[in-house]
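User: For my dataset I need records formatted as: sequence, then structure tokens, nothing else. Please produce one.
Assistant:
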Amino acid sequence: MTLPLAEHPQRHRLNDEVHARPPMLLEGGEWISYLAVLHEGAEAAEEEAHLHRLCEILGAKMCPLVQGDHWVMEAGPLRLKWERHNEFSGYTFYLHRQPEDDPETSAIDALPPDWLAGIPGSVIVATHVEFCPASAVDRDEKLAALTLTGETWVATQVADGAAWVISDFRLHHGWSRFLVIDDHLRHRQAGRTVQRLLEIETYRMMALLAFPVAKEVSKRLSRVEADLASLMDDMTEAHTPEDERRLLSTLTQLAAKVERSVTRTAFRFGAAEAYYALVQQRIGELREQRLNGFPPIAEFMERRLAPAVNTCLSVSRRQNELSTRIARKSALLRTRVDIELERQNQELLAQMNRRASLQLRLQETVEGLSVVAITYYASQLVSYLAKGLSKTLLPQLSPEIASAVSIPLIAAVVAFGIRRMRRALAAEEGHGA
């Protein structure tokens, strides 16, 4: 019965994700060739179009395992599994092994050279895996031959002793090589074992992409740390605001350099940590058992890969800590600058207060003079008025006496009016504040 409810548009895609990257069934001997290709701007549609061209050449058909990300092709004895990841795409070619095959045979020999050269992107991993039953190889003789080469070989039993894995993790004509000897693996288990080996090789190389970045960043950090130490010495000798502002400007430039480096490298260092965790997980899933005289894959990676990854993580921490130190010192210097600015502002306010006090005294002086001036002119008006009245209505009125009597009255009225006006303005100013 169909679910009678509205479904989330990503429900089927998310459900299929737990079935992503299924191992291929391996029956008998197989030649396996694997390529991990960095995208470098190549779109999924471009890669799929290239895969469809191979299907046309071989007369085969691509079948999607998970929509858009995982495809499988079968063309007679040749099989191809394509997987697209965030940074790279994996091409795994399987070719049935025949007893009469040359030992140097590989799965890519069955591919058109022009098509192989046209795969979009750049190769980061290229691996050949020879998968053969235990009946086809004398294991003791093989191990004895390896000890005579004088080189470091990794040989281990995996899947609780169900298979043997041999490799030197070196490039031979551009390819790394694995020999997997099947003792009693089941078909699906054999596919998982080979897939884990290929994933270990891929994630190992992807993790190491951060190593050259770490070396370059480490050199830059050394220069920045030296500049920072010099700035701290200058900070103790800075005595003027101009010196502190100059130091703050230089410190801000250093902070910008470090933050730019953090922004550019954060993804790479984070990816290295994630890829290394995947390498360790896949090694654990192999369930190794040591063979006398040979290091297992876990030990080899711990001695060779772990130091490089730890270097990357150390540089990442050092970079973040340097950013924090610069931010802390910038805050300290900015505090000193702010304190100096506050002191200058206080001095400026004190000067403004003194000026305001002087202006107030001057204003009071002016107001006093204004009372005198207004009283003088008003008394003159009274004098003129008294002269006119003395010649008409009040002949006994003396203009001089009238002017003299009016002077204190006029002065009192003017002073009272000015004071009242000042109080009204002060009240209005206080209400507005």
